[in-house]
Automatic annotation (TrEMBL):
Pfam families: FixS. Residues 42-66 have a biased composition (Basic and acidic residues). The lineage of its organism: Bacteria, Pseudomonadati, Pseudomonadota, Gammaproteobacteria, Thiohalorhabdales. Residues 42-80 are annotated as: Disordered. This is Cytochrome oxidase maturation protein, cbb3-type.
Length: 80
């Protein structure tokens, strides 16, 4: 019985932390878009707002200005 009285406050504190973490996650928007990241991988990456694509497009423009040809694959920055 003494063990029960000792464990009960500990359990209540842990439940309080779990509820606080849950409400924080809900308030900060962690559960707003559950499907977006799964579909984002399927979208085309030719968006110029993506920094890598912006650099790649600038490289193409510089190559066209230089000799009038598109850069070869080995001249383009790698995606890794």
């Amino acid at each position: 019985m003494e063990t029960l009285f000792a464990l009960l406050p500990i359990v209540l504190v842990l439940v309080g932390f779990a509820l606080a973490a849950l409400f924080w996650a809900i308030k900060s928007g962690q559960f707003d878009d559950l499907e977006g990241p799964a579909y984002r991988i399927l979208h085309d990456d030719d968006d110029p707002r993506i920094p890598f694509n912006r650099q790649r497009e600038q490289g193409r423009e510089e190559a066209k200005d230089g000799d009038g040809e598109e850069p070869r694959d080995e001249d383009r920055p790698s995606g890794s």
